[in-house]
Write a structure and sequence with these properties.
By secondary structure, the protein is mainly α. The protein has helices spanning 2-6, 22-50, 76-90, 96-121, 130-150, 173-191, 199-216, 219-225, 236-254, 263-280, 287-290, 292-311, 321-327, 332-352; strands at residues 156-158, 166-168.
Length: 357
């Protein structure tokens, strides 16, 4: 809104020219989301405590997690409010990519809200069944993919480390894009098991895709780096900046020992947002590297289930893999920080592929 209200005033005073620059609006979208988180965070946490919206701890989880029972959850509402509020203020709302990304983020958030509501309000420990949850996620992801396809979005995917190598999937891009979005949403959800464990890598991945969005939408930089240029996608740097700011704000309350958990409302929406950013910036394959921690967490669950069903044996002491390290005696803060460090390294490697082609 600020862009639409204030930039036209540039014809009266040059100071308003700054609102045309994506970099300027990205910085202040980040700051705004952070401030919103700080403002509404304490209030929402108090309300959740009054409403007794506390985390339900699984009986088969690590014994140390019993102490976390009753910690307010559904804190992802802080993140969603901060992101959407900041995006509404600082983005160009005529950009259809902004609306598409908002649709996926809010859609996945709504699914997460229903799941959390059933668990903590209706006291149904299973929440939304896995089948219904996956179906709802697929519907949101497919809707976004179909909208992209009919808008004649480029259906080619780029291959990291290779210059000028593209694979055009044609109509096959629809299920591919839906898979990326749904997979990312679930991967972040699986990672959300320790205080600050998921939000740290989300913050790092959001910052990485903030850079990708800017350079992909800047014709001169894209041509210089010989990467695919997508007109208008640079505006998503502002959206990604809002995700960075909201993640930092939430981490303030979610850092060990956590005052609040994000719940599915936060994990599903953030994962879906990251998957959509990967699609729109034409860095779909790189999401496997940028979100490497999420990938490993997901693979650990898959391997554990497959191994147990086929052989009756477990590969890990417990899955996802962060619980394995817990049961091996690693302190929770050590696991969290080490996973953050790995995320930073993977993000730097992903950024290096812009030149290593």
């Amino acid at each position: 809104m600020l862009f639409h209200f204030l930039y036209p005033l540039a014809k009266y005073h040059t100071v308003f020219n700054v609102f045309q620059y994506i970099t300027f609006r990205t910085i202040y979208a980040t700051v705004t989301a952070l401030v919103i988180s700080f403002v509404i965070g304490p209030y929402l946490i108090r309300r959740l405590k009054v409403m007794q919206v506390g985390e339900v701890i699984r009986d088969d989880g690590p014994p140390t997690h019993k102490l976390k029972a009753g910690t307010p959850t559904m804190g992802g509402a802080i993140i969603l409010t901060a992101v959407i509020g900041s995006v509404a203020l600082w983005t160009n709302l005529k950009n259809h990519y902004v609306w598409l990304l908002s649709f996926v983020t809010l859609g996945m958030g709504a699914i997460g809200f229903i799941d959390d509501y059933r668990k903590v309000i209706l006291k149904d420990p299973k929440g939304l069944s896995a089948g219904w949850k996956f179906l709802a996620q697929t519907v949101v992801a497919l809707a976004a993919a179909i909208l992209l396809y009919i808008s004649e979005f480029d259906t080619a995917i780029t291959i990291p480390f290779f210059k000028g190598v593209y694979i055009d999937l044609g109509i096959g891009y629809i299920p591919f894009a839906a898979l990326v979005i749904t997979g990312a949403s679930n991967a972040v959800n699986l990672t959300d098991g320790l205080d600050g464990l998921a939000i740290g890598p989300v913050l790092i991945a959001s910052a990485t895709y903030m850079l990708f969005a800017y350079i992909t939408g800047h014709v001169k930089i894209a041509n210089y780096l010989q990467i695919m240029y997508v007109s208008g996608v640079g505006e998503l740097a502002v959206f990604a900046g809002a995700m960075v700011g909201a993640s930092m704000g939430f981490l303030w309350f979610n850092a060990y020992p956590a005052q609040v958990f994000m719940g599915d409302i936060g994990a599903l929406s953030l994962g879906g947002g990251l998957g959509t950013l990967a699609i729109l910036t034409k860095n779909e394959i790189l999401l496997l590297l940028v979100g490497g921690v999420f990938v490993v967490e997901t693979l650990s669950v898959i391997c554990q289930v497959v191994s147990f069903k086929l052989t009756g044996r477990r590969i890990f002491a417990m899955a996802p893999i962060h619980h394995h390290f817990e049961l091996k005696g690693w302190a929770e803060p050590k696991i969290i920080v080490r996973f953050w460090i790995i995320s930073i390294i993977l993000a730097l490697v992903a950024i290096s592929t812009l030149k290593l082609r």
